[in-house]
Amino acid sequence: MSNKLYVFGHQKPDTDSITSAIVLANLERALGLDATAYKLGEVNKETKYALKTFETEEPLTLDSVDENCDVAMVDNNEFSQSVSGIEKANIKMVVDHHKIKFETVEPIFYLAEPVGCTATILYKLYKQNDVEIDSQIAGLMLSAIISDTLLFKSPTCTKQDVEIANKLSKIAGVDIETYGKEMLKAGTDISEFTPYQVINIDSKEFNDKNTKFEISQVNAVDLDSVFSRQSELEDAIQKEIQDKNLDFYMFAATDILNANSKIIAIGNKANAVEKAFGVNLENNTAMLNNVVSRKKQMLPNILNNLD
Ligand code: MG
Ligand code: MG
Ligand code: MG
Question: Residue 35 and residue 52: Cα distance in Å, rounded?
Fold first, then answer.
């Protein structure tokens, strides 16, 4: 009898992190394992919309794991973004599409591809294992691809993401453009969120080249309405910088219709952001034209400009 397999994505989960945990757990169960999907934080509005559309329950929250737990990580491989206790757990699998910061003591199943979404990799894993993709699983995978690629507008989007999304939309029975716009829009309403909640909807901490920093991102259809709250957002950012001892914090509001981002950058090393994008921060803000992807644009540009 195999151990139970805990399947989960990253903290401050996005749609890919939640749905890929569900989708991989479903695959592993079909292959005979005792697998359960978990979430590592509150499910955001966009993801709630996707789960509701495809009649799927939210996974339970996982607070920590220990050395007795068999785990599968999806949509991330960095312990700083994972569950408490992860460094002691038995990591059996990783399925991911991010830069790799990972070391193991035993051989493991590690599947990483430079595609736009974990779901795209999982689709191929279902095919390889000859496991059926029903309309619910297809809808969840499609939602993740739409979310991670911003409806194919992100530079992270590959031909495979588009082709697989098209196949999935047929199985799920939804029109990609119509459903995709509705789902993305569902995630942009931040009106009832506190400033702390806004900056923590989708924020990731990085620790590279002796620099500790955080990049937070929200999707928006109206940048002005986000920046009408600039001063309270800055207060929340300052507090994060102090509490976590960050060298800088970058908050990006990404205009999902025009594919630009307006940022707030604060901290001792915020000049790395100016160098990274060739901009001058004015009143702590700058407009980054054609920048929408943290993974492929924001993060690598910043990493290349840290001293
Ligand atoms: Mg993610
Ligand atoms: Mg992802
Ligand atoms: Mg993301």
Answer: 22
Q: For residue 283, how far is its CA from the centre of ligand 2 (angstroms)?
A: 32
Q: How many Å lie between the centroid of ligand 1 and the Cα of residue 65?
A: 20
Same-domain check for residues 71 and 150: yes
- Residue 47 Cα to ligand 3 midpoint, Å, equals 12
43 and 168 part of one domain: yes
117 CA from centroid of ligand 2 (Å) = 5
The pTM of the full predicted model, rounded to 2 decimals, is: 0.88
Mean per-residue pLDDT, 247-267: 96
Q: What are residue 103's phi and psi, to 5 degrees?
A: -140, 140
Contact 254, 218 (CB under 8 A): yes
Q: What is the pLDDT of residues 24-46, one digit of tens each?
A: 999 999 999 999 999 999 999 99
Domain count, the chain: 2
